[in-house]
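[retry 2/3] Enoyl reductase (ER) domain-containing protein: previous attempt timed out, resubmitting with same input.
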Amino acid sequence: MSGEEAPAQQQKSEEQKQETKANEEPKPETKQETAPAADASAAPAATEKAPEEEVFTYRSLVLSGYGGYDKVKLQVKKGMPTLKNGEVLVRVKACGLNFADLLGRQGLYDRLPSPPVTPGLECSGVIEALGEEVTDRKVGDKVLVLNRCGLWQEVVAVPASHTFAMPDGMSFEEAAAIPVNYITAYMMLFDFGNLRPNQSVLVHMAAGGVGIAATQLCKTVKDVTVFGTASASKHEAISQGGVTHTIDYRTQDYVSEIRKISPKGLDIILDPLGGSDTHKAFNLLKPMGKLITYGTANMLTGQKKNLLAVAKTWYNQFSTNAGSLIHANKSVCGFHIGYLDGEYELISQVVAKLLELYSQGKIKPRVDSTYHFEQVGDAMRRMQERNNIGKVILLTEPKKEEEKKEEKKEEEKKDEKKDEKKDEPKSEEGKKEEN
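[retry 2/3] Enoyl reductase (ER) domain-containing protein: success.
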């Protein structure tokens, strides 16, 4: 091979390599050149990318672990809930917040499955689909729902027997406020308590959901005297709601206050507190009196589980025996709506009576406040710090941009005020204290 032929041969070899490489590499997508209209219309439709199928999503509140308010998080779930026989699909509009949900967040409510789990015992909404064998409901029905858990989300699949038709004129917020509070109050007062005219009842936490429900139900019976405990700022509200004698549990000894008015004691006491307060309640009963205990609110003292409060409540737990009850001529009952989840025939009878009372104007849920799912931490804080008068409701609809802007402005104002306080010149006394 001559010296002249070698460079030419190398050049030819390089060209062949480049061609081979170009053939091996994937060709990038190229824009089609402009073609006549006839040719464009004849272009094969197969070249167009088929649109992706939309996946159904819905918002849900999920308890990620036990602890503070931040443990309940807003998540987006994918896929439509599957309906089983006898179930209905409900588009949820409003959900109720209960003490059981606060206890569940701290790991103190044994009816709530372990995290991650969606809480929520009650809600209201509209039926969107029916499962097989559902005959007493139809699409479009407005219903209130009671379930063991899982209702804090935009859509839920529940047994049709767990739903109850809303009366005309009832709002979704009111409907979400009825199941837990009013069923609890009704069954304690009338099934256990056998409430009759001219009797006396003690309602603890009278400004809460169960407290207001119990007070309203007491007023459906002639000449019932209601003693209600609440902080002083709530006395006007509960008095207007039907409480006969208000007591500030923070500054007054409710036992001595009741004895002043009713020396013989009371006929019925509803105890949501537990611990030493249950002992006091039993001693406050008249002969033939009835104590109905339905909670352990004394264990709930902060965002996270307070082991000292839990231990103290259980250590002071009330106990008795058949002989003592016989000698005292008193009865003690325990109520827990969470353990009645297999008694929906009984529950349905109670709900029917409650909805009839609502239609008659004899009871009406008091909604304290509403919060969007994004604000669940604020909602729980309001209830746990005992700032509510009535029911705290969660709304499933996303928060509007206008509301977000207003909240942001309020936060900015608060921050400005804090900064102004920091910048204020300190007094001579303040300087001395620092030194």
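[retry 2/3] Enoyl reductase (ER) domain-containing protein: The chain is about 35% helix and 20% strand.
[retry 2/3] clearing retry counter.
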